[in-house]
Design goal:
- The structure is a single chain.
- The relative contact order is 0.17.
- The longest helix has 22 residues, at 19-40.
- The chain is an alpha/beta fold.
- It has helices spanning 19-40, 64-79, 94-107, 120-128, 166-173, 207-215, 263-271, and strands spanning 11-15, 85-88, 114-117, 142-147, 151-152, 158-159, 176-184, 198-202, 224-227, 250-255, 276-279, 281-282, 288-293, 296-302.
């Protein structure tokens, strides 16, 4: 429940929809786009096949995929306008933002949009939907970037990179005037670390040395560094080979049992380690977090 999310930090929560309004929004949204999602969604990302009538109560829990769709669609509806350069994130929540952008371009409600994808799989999805694509080489300034997150702390610092696209995500999203984060309420936490391992992208050269060096950093005390195996698109061991990112690098996942004491300091120490390409701590980058939960949709923004 979003009421449990702490509000005594230097930020505030703004309720966007009351429960009865968001139920109508989510019901119509799911009904209108279910066929499109089925056509393009990878198996792991397929939305629930359950149908909802307009009389469904919010007390009847929506599935996680339905919550992801709600925030994904809202992010595009609220923050993307014709003529913009848009950064497209990677992952099961960002998937629905890309889908919505494709729908609005096809219907003519949005025009003159170009987008920059943050992974090969997002690029493939965007191409299937007819979204015009460019790169940072030609468009170094973005109007908005939209992406999911694996964890969000009270200061809106993030852990990202569970899907292995952390380097490209950060390169694109740091160039955006607005960075909109879309999550369901399960990603909200009191402190980064215990709920989701922090990924670190490293060079293959002497990767075991770099793994040990990162694990021994003072700010990483107590972490267990684990080399990602199998697919780079998740942090589960699903193969015998070392996972390789779209950039040809490896990933070390830092597992914590206690919350990270200083995420900003840790980010700086990891980044300055020779052999590290980048890491999944996204600190002081967020413009707004759109959160979907049982109480409806809320937007959390940093204080000015």
């Amino acid at each position: 429940n979003l009421s449990s999310f702490p509000t005594d930090h230097n930020s505030y929560v703004r309720k966007v929809h009351k429960p009865n309004n968001i139920m109508r929004f989510s019901t119509l949204l799911i009904a209108a786009s279910l066929s499109t999602a089925a056509a393009f969604t990878p198996t792991a990302f397929k939305p629930s096949s359950r149908s909802f009538s307009v009389t469904t109560s919010l007390n009847m829990a929506l599935s996680q995929d339905e919550l992801k769709k709600m925030v994904g669609y809202k992010s595009v509806d609220d923050y993307v306008k014709s003529g913009m350069v848009v950064g497209l994130g990677t992952g099961s929540t960002a998937y629905f933002a890309v889908e919505r952008l494709g729908q609005l371009l096809k219907s003519g409600e949005l025009e003159d949009i170009v987008a920059i994808p943050t992974s090969v799989r997002t690029k493939e999805q965007a191409e299937e939907l007819g979204i015009p694509l460019v790169t940072l080489d030609t468009h170094s300034k973005l109007d908005v970037a939209i992406d999911g997150a694996d964890e969000v702390d009270p200061d809106l610092n993030l852990v990202k990179g569970g899907g292995g696209a952390l380097l490209r995500e950060k390169m694109v999203e740091v160039c955006a005037d607005k960075f909109i984060v879309i999550v369901d309420e399960s990603k909200i936490c009191d402190g980064l670390g215990p709920g989701f391992p922090v990924p670190v992208e490293i060079t293959p050269f002497c990767h075991e040395h770099t793994l040990r060096t990162v694990g021994n950093l003072p700010s990483c005390a107590g972490c267990k560094p684990v080399l990602r195996m199998g697919s780079s698109a998740n942090n589960q061991v699903d193969g015998d080979e070392i996972a390789v990112t779209d950039n040809g690098n490896y990933i070390v996942d830092l597992h914590f049992e206690e919350p990270i004491k200083d995420a900003v300091k840790m980010a700086e120490q990891i980044k300055s380690t020779v052999g590290v390409v980048d890491h999944g701590l996204f600190c002081d980058m967020t413009t707004a977090v759109i959160i979907a939960g049982s109480d409806g949709i809320s937007v959390k923004e940093p204080s000015s």
